[in-house]
Amino acid sequence: MDVTDFFTGEIATELLKQLVLISAKAWKYKSIADRLIILIETIQPTIHEIQYSGVELPPHRQAQIGMLAGTLEKGKKLTERVLSSRRWNMYRQFTLAKKMEKLEKTISDFMKNQILTHILADVHQHRTNADVRFDRVERSLTGLEEQLGSMKIGGGGMITDAMKIAEATMEIETSDDCEKFGVGLEMGKRKVKKMMFNAEGGLFGISGMGGVGKTTLARDLEHDNEVRCYFENRILFLTVSQSPILDELRTRIWGFLTGCESVNNVPDWNLQYNGGVKTKKLVILDDVWTRKALDSLTSNLPSCTILVVSRSKLADPNATYDVEVLREDEAISLFCLCAFGQKTIPPGFDKDLVKKVAGECKGLPLALKVTGASLKDRPEMYWQGALQRLSKGEPADETHETRLLHHMEASLADLDETARECFLDLGAFPEDRKIPVDILINMWIEVHDLDEAVAFATLVDLSHKNLLTLGKDPRLGSTYASYYDVFVTQHDVLRDLALHLSNKGKVNRRKRLLMPKREEKLPKTWGKNCDEEYNAEIVSIHTCKICVFVAGGMDDMDWSDFDMDFPKAEVLLLNFSSDKYVLPPFLSKMTRLKVLVIINNGMSPAILRDFSMFANLSKLRSLWLERVHVPELYNTTIPMKHLHKMSLILCKINNSFDQTGVDVSSIFPKLGDLTIDHCDDLVTLPSSICKMTSLNSLSITNCPRLGELPKNLSKLQALEVLRLYACPELKALPAEICELPQLKYLDISQCVSMSCLPEDIGKLKMLEKIDMRECYISGRVKSAVSLESLRHVICDKDVAFIWEEVERAVPGLKVEAAEKCFSLDWLDE
Question: What are the residue boundaries of the RPW8 domain, all occurrences included (predicted)?
Fold first, then answer.
């Protein structure tokens, strides 16, 4: 760097301070000073980039910088003369005003010549040539970070924070920013601009998971011509970071909004304009981590527009743009740009291999850039190894781990211990599969000892921090809402992060034993230390098939290599794709198991073998069976004394609950929650279920052939929740339903054949809510006026009239005419 470069930056800074003082004190020069401020603020970031780049410019560029330095130096002297001039000397003031106008024109002409663009191109060329050296420096800094991670820098920031900021701003240099993100960036810009331009100030947000391109979008908005024109070039961009110095940031915002940048302390944060024309101003707060920091920086601000960029949803959802991952074609272009220096796959290179590696990044820009750069100039065999590692949730190489996974791990820094553990639990679920919310909630209740409301709040918090995506459902979060048909999804890079953090250390010592991808058999590393106990509390197995077919039928899989002992296991998830499944022998030794999830991802329900080992699961509290044949129950079936919740999804019931002489209540003495969903062979609800007097929630949903409920339903005296939605053949509710003294919630939505409600429904004194959407009931029920606890009815508009009398008779009752909602999301599975 030439000495001239340094002094140019210093002069520009001093000149800017002088102009601010002139604008505030000398009203005759105010308009010229304001225009000069805009010019200097526009040119100053480029000057600083050149100043601190560490690159020595060619002689002809140094001469151009020297010319700019001379102009700015003259401007600095001119401003000193303006500030010292006497008010009564009108001729001198007129002369100085003309000279300031000439200064403005000189600087403006200089910028129009695009000289700085050429200088910046030189700097970028030097950077490109120094890539190899930067990699060596980065490795050295990584070691330094580990040694000095707790030391303070920059007046309060941590070295680790500085490293994370540097990583977050790391970009692969290209000739055109639009090449990095394609049309996705332009679409995001249009949506954010529309939000800001349609409102007179306010708080807006850009949200998304780490590495998705939030800062890139915000920077592009900062330099967008429409945005600069709308806000008259009055834009302040601040990086807040995880360890912000809030006093300094507040002072900078104060100075930007009031023009008094020389003030060191903010005396009163209740800012007000004392006159003059209010101008539109934009404050962009990038990398904001907490609501507390945002509130501290934005409370009681004067009228302005604030754009907050965060991994969490800190602004109102309606005023927040969620940055989306790239489309496949955009992702391939960005990946190739970083791996090959061009936007297409070069001739002769294995196209399928490139697409598979890029596909592992799932459209995440940072993952595409880091992975592509790490494979640059590598042979195809190296790519094959990287693909295998990526498919297992492992880093492609050391650089990939440092730049990507460590960067993503920063998203977990503000989570409390419980929320962090809940995030890591998400690694137990298969790749690219929807996760039923009900399974997550049950896991967290049992493993982390959470109440249901706290578990749901944790789920929402993780969603707000963009660590998972919560499916949109109008019922979600409402009282008596069900979770078994609501799903969450997670980006594969976040899942890889959970696997990476969970799979550290020796296999036997891990808290979670997770299979990163679907395989034919269990990982060999699992069976190498079978003579030693496993500490895993959560075990997840994801296989293609777990049986071997031989002549004459099916033979058990050879589990002898995996005679494992899990004395601490509390959750077991078994995912497979087969029409026959042999349960693992070690299941019988999981005596502390509380949650068992068995999911068949095949096309037809699977037959389970060795179901008898359930007899040893005395502490099992939650059972989820999906797409399997429900085993028959016998008098000899060992009671599951602690089972509280059972969910049968897409199963074949096979009259399992209606075996002659079987006392179901003795087999499930404490069952409180039974769900039967999408079971197409269920024609009549087994009367034996009514013997389970411990039930407080019964859900029979999406069963297309169910036409009748048992007459002895009144035996369920503890029942509080009854869901019967989407049973199109169900024509009526039995009169006995009116004998349920504890019933609080009744859901008969989408029971399209049902034409009336029971005459004595008024007996349900505890009933609080009825959901009867798409239920064509036309007749009024006189006794309904006696539903004294009823506070919410959801129905279609054309049947709302039947509740008019009840609405007048029952204080506080809300009759909601709901929008029709059809969902076939479950078919995606």
Answer: 1-149
